[in-house]
Amino acid sequence: ADMSFSTLGLAPSLLNAIAEIGYDEPTAIQRAAIPAILRGEDVLGAAQTGSGKTAAFALPLLQSLLDNRDGPRQLHGLVLVPTRELAVQVGESIRKLVSHLSMPVKVAIVFGGVSINPQMMALRGGADIVVATPGRLLDLIDHNALKISRAAMLVLDEADRLLDLGFSEELNRILALLPKQRQNLFFSATFPPAVQKLADSILHQPARIEVLSEPASKPDIVQRAIAVDVPRRTMLLKHLIQEHQWRGVMVFVATKYAADHVADKLNRNGIRAASFHGELSQGARTETLTDFRSGRLQALVATDVAARGIDIARLPAVVNYDLPRSAVDYTHRIGRTGRAARAQVLGGGQQARDFGGGVAHQQRPGGAVFQRRIGGNAGEGAQLGAADDRPFQREDAGAAQPVRVVARHVDHHARLAFLAQLYAPHAADGEAGEGHVHADGDALRVVGLQDQCLRGLERAARVHQ
């Protein structure tokens, strides 16, 4: 049943802030997490980016701070995040709430890649809430700019990505410096063994909250897979951008080198593009994002790690130039773009050699997946027009039946269904390759697919568990 924020136990000052900002109803994770956090419980939250989890921990964190503030300012809440962009995004979300409160609350946002001195100055006189990347937090502690020994609440946001980026040693150092008596909030989109082990070591009898998706809040999304010979990908990408007149398309690649290389080739072909990856300075990344948001750039060519946490609305399309390495990355791409409710989502797959090329996704009414083979004697994507928006016929396997995935809303099952197509090897010569996979309520319906495609689905499902 629908609930309003007023039923969750929040203080009137916070309810006023929520009303002024214009939040309507709490999301699923907010409904579940806020009362548990207000009761003082540890929380283990399985939630995608875009589920409303920042407010789910920020609101009770602020209430705890307002209830317990006395004496000089000292650190009350520490929020650890994996990337600079996420630090800014989470920190600014908390500051937005704070700006509607009558009591002054100081929120510090600290991350590496920029000079430490302004951050040390910002921490003079203490801070109530610190949002930090682990490495820079330890640098500031080593410079005596910050003490965390009396923090009342620890939040780990995107814990899986913290470990992916190799922060486990820094996390152990930080945990050793925190007080034993504290409340812990642990959020992750996925729970591989290392993440589960970290959660078990930090949390005490946590409230477990899992939010897979809220399909009704997601836009209808068309996922279109195009198998293309690798050397022809850039020309196909150029064709798609020009044919559909995309302005502001995000292109995913596997490496920093590929980001630079593809951006350079697009620029040489008359498409304004820039690369976005971890080797760029913070200043360069900020400038590139500003240019992309303002429309000065037509394409942003990004790696997964760099693009994690970017929140950009009104994207006409997302293109996977290199397919994601795992179903996990596929899920994250959906999570990040889905949050803006205008985003296009996204693809999965094994390696480019298995599927032969890139995957483009457009938001359009309906929700079927359209795929078409490009290569051999085909022109540089010349046949790719509206007339070709039909379910993919496996031309290379002589198939009469379409292989299609219905993904009207991008929920858990629809993701797996699409992954099944991309994780499966091509049908061998002479095999029909007919059948379909689709989400039917809470069930996944698989009809007539070959064994290797079913194995692909199982592989994708295992990664998701």
Commentary on this structure:
This protein is of the alpha/beta class and 465 residues long. Among the domains are: 5-210, 3-Layer(aba) Sandwich (Rossmann fold), CATH 3.40.50.300; 230-337, 3-Layer(aba) Sandwich (Rossmann fold), CATH 3.40.50. It is built from 17 helices and 17 strands. Mean pLDDT is 71; it is low at 214-221, 334-454 and 456-465. This is Dead box ATP-dependent RNA helicase, putative.
CATH class of the domain at 5-210: Alpha Beta
Mean pLDDT: 71
What is the H level of CATH, i.e. the homologous superfamily of the domain at 5-210? P-loop containing nucleotide triphosphate hydrolases
Molecular shape:
globular
Count of discrete alpha- or pi-helical segments spanning 4 or more residues: 17
| Proportion of strand residues | 15-25%
What fold name stands as the CATH topology of the domain at 5-210?
Answer: Rossmann fold
How many strands? 17
Largest pleated sheet: 7 strands, parallel
